[in-house]
Amino acid sequence: MIKDPPLLTIRRDFPRPDLALVDKLLGAQTGHVIDALMGRGALNAAIKPVDPACTRFAGIAFPVETFPDDNLAILASLAFVKPGDVIVVAGEGFTRSASVGDNIAMMAKNAGVRAIVIDGMARDLDGIIAAGLPVHARGITPNSCVKSGPGKVGLPIVAGGMAIAPGDVIVGDRDGTVVIPQGRVADIIAQLDDIRRLEGEMQAKIRAGLVCPENIRALLASDKTHYVE
To answer: Which of 182, 188, 193, 215 is the most buried (most CB within 10 A)?
Structure first.
């Protein structure tokens, strides 16, 4: 028989990367970060910015886990977050009620949080827009949730199909949300300039009239391609 869990299980603090290092990712395009991560690292594609005019952020993951239709742990996390954090919520993809609204967004901004990412729903869109805090969610619904727990704060989670540990780095823009493992942050940053340069060179060729990349044409002309006439 399963025992009733505590209403909240909380890790109050954990090692974080240097915020000055994380700040080097501010404004980074998520697609470029994914290229540095060898093509994977984004949360489920359904998790998108709720305000298309407020999408970009980079910060330190402060994970929260809630039961569906509950936000007690999210509210509790506000007592422990630090400036530069991103509240990332594992909400089991629940879409029948919202766990984050404008009040939580405003309090999180007061605490110096850079964004909220939830594998679930948000509400109070006008208020969230007014708060000016990036919120990435599966969508908007006016339905409200309860505050009964149980929940976990500051512990590893799985949200949007991605494992997220406390202290990982989260980057977001209009395309979605990306997780960088804490131990790889410096390596990813070091790759971005080359990725941006190569992307710029490719787009310059496209603007000049390129139709098909040279490496694809070479493949098509090689014995690795079989033509059926």
So the answer is: 188
